[in-house]
Amino acid sequence: MKKLTTIALGVALSAALAGCGKQGEAPKTEEKAAMADDSGAMAAPAETKHGKGTATVTAIDSAKAQVTLDHGAIAELDWPPMTMGFAAKPELLKDIKVGDKVAFELDWDGKAGTITKLDKAP
């Protein structure tokens, strides 16, 4: 048993010393470039996607320039039907009221949506 313990300690000590023997190295130029590319990709904003659909207006907040829509599926964004709020320029909201059926287009940046076109549906 003593012999087995001695061998195990010898192997562990050898492995530890082998790891300590190698000094840390600064990344090579191409490694630095790769790391910069990776961190830059994480900081880059998400790609803006454009979608369109039809909805019923459920709320309008002119002071905050927001409209809440109960919309159908939006294929371009892979969205199921849902109710959600969007930013909208006040001029897009001027002829719209709660209960109106609308056709709309929006830009989605991955976090928030902005209505770019809003018309009463026929």
UniProtKB/TrEMBL annotation:
Signal peptide from the UniProt entry: 1-18
InterPro entries in alphabetical order: CusF_Ec (IPR021647), CusF_sf (IPR042230)
Bias kind Low complexity: ranges: 36-46
Record region (Disordered): 20-53
Alphabetized UniProt keyword annotations: Signal
Domain of life according to the entry: Bacteria
Keyword Signal: yes
Gene3D superfamilies: Copper binding periplasmic protein CusF
Keyword Signal found: yes
UniProt-listed Pfam families: CusF_Ec
Feature: compositional bias, Basic and acidic residues: 25-35
Name by which UniProt lists this protein: Copper ABC transporter substrate-binding protein
Lineage: Bacteria, Pseudomonadati, Pseudomonadota, Alphaproteobacteria, Sphingomonadales
